[in-house]
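REVIEWER CHECKLIST
Item 1: Sequence provided? yes
Item 2: Single chain? yes
Item 3: Sequence as submitted:
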Amino acid sequence: MWQPENNVEKERLEKLERIRAKGVEPYPTRAERTHTIEQAVAAYQNIEDATPEGQEPAGIAVTVCGRIVSHRPQGKASWSHIEDGTGRVQLWIKQDKVGEEAQALFDDDLDLFDFVQAQGTMMRTRRGEITVLVEALTLIAKSLSPLPVIKERRLDDGSIERYGGFTDPEERYRQRYADLAVNADVRKVFITRAHTVSAIRRFLDGEGFLEVETPILQPIYGGAAARPFVTHHNQLKQDLFLRISFELYLKRLLVGTLDGVYEIGRDFRNEGVDRTHNPEFTQVEFYKAYSNYEDVMDITERLVSTVAREVTGSSTITFQGDTINFDPPWQRITLRDAIIQYTGIDYVDYPDAESLKDIMAKKGKHPDPDSTWGKLVDSLLGTDVQPNLIQPTFLLDYPRDISPLAKKKPDDPAHVERFEFFIAGIEMGNAFTELNDPLDQEQRFLEMGRLYGDDSEESHPVDEDYLRAMRYGMPPNGGWGMGVDRMVMLLADCPNIREVLLFPHLRERER
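Item 4: Structure as written out by the authors:
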């Protein structure tokens, strides 16, 4: 049984018992509401606007519900503010309207963060604040533990300083429910997130794609260079993997003559956690028959700029002090040229790991001695190129050795038709002209297995069922994936992925 941890909780528990002793249920089965707070305020404003000048607006009867966020008992005429998910409104509680029992309940037994139901008439006070003149006040949920209060004070220069509340980011993530309750800015982030997902879905639906769902538990993982989470199905006596990508299942659907498909969902990668990575994250992927990576670049530019306009009202945003313009066309540069530009190293001149390590060391880099050639190229991209890509940029034409699912360039078999796109120095997504030759694909799988070994994140298991599907005939197609969380980071101006995940993964508390 829960026991109060401090005097405030003890006092609130005593109030709860006192309320019940009076025959009042502090957690009633039903609550009634005729208007959200936003609707109630808007309805009264509409009446005011329609009232001829010099006349008193007619009242409007409402029943609103919300959490008490200010509590000012003053005897026979008390004041409060309540807040729901749409807004905040003032309550005026007068004893001659609500009766002695309700007035006493407000004055003696209600606290900040309790939920109440207020029935009354909308009005505007002499100070100009829209208010509910309460005629019936009902407790609908008693708060036993007080939320951390965020307070405001006006500084000498006229600005507002916020203080109190949560000061430890990790504690905010652990108690996101409390963070949301006291911090309107945090609620706005997750409203932005919901609008972003909806806008992506509308765009892809409008392009003629079909939304589908593919397995999260998979007997063979694939579609990305990542280490999977492993689980076990007891009845089937079979190890399964949480998916690291939707790719191989979505491309199976192209074989089935679904010409354009997409999925928005969760992927899981057993990898490190940093400001742009979380083991569980949201991804959107699409695959379109009879298209290539040039077509996909066009879709990408239009999707991102359209989503930004729908969510923020503009295709230009500010992210961590940088002004970013999503309008097409975006910068396009080959990966090779970008690495030459920022490091002076042309990796084509160093076709094996040892020679590439040597030139990197001579240039003052610190290559991992155990890295493969592909990982070394990727490290040059991550450390020297990526931080400079602030405006939306496509990096094109990756080495074949690090792109096992992409089609070779017709004029350059050492490179494939692949691009990644970057915004604000963040990798946002990855796309290919997809490989649809089943014999070439099988050879790539085997080569990756020999090159990296089964315990490498770069290894791709040979998926025989996927190869079988390809042998039935897969149309030429372009495929694309983008991290939804990272898109929300940009649109909400949040520098850390944990700020846009309702419940990010955290280490277990130290005892």
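Item 5: Key structural point noted by reviewer: Residues 186-330+391-500 form a domain with the BirA Bifunctional Protein; domain 2 fold (CATH 3.30.930.10).
Item 6: Recommendation: ____
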